[in-house]
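Please check our next protein.
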Amino acid sequence: MTNIKVQAPVPVDLEGDLASLPGFGARMAPHWAAPARTASLPVSPALIHGVTVPPASARLLDSMSDYGD
């Protein structure tokens, strides 16, 4: 049988302020490993098909600015 070691949880201050969040993040960061970064390859426009946009949505998007207002 495997003996699983469990660490005692760090007490959480539910009434804490935003200044305490970086400390929480720094304590939790070692627990998660970031996945290896993979480069995305561009997709040929010829391979993109089957996407339909309703005319009302197309007009709405066309009237929006590129970066919001």
Notes: The chain has a mean pLDDT of 76. The two ends are 61 Å apart (CA to CA). Helices lie at 21-28, 55-63. The longest helix spans residues 55-63.
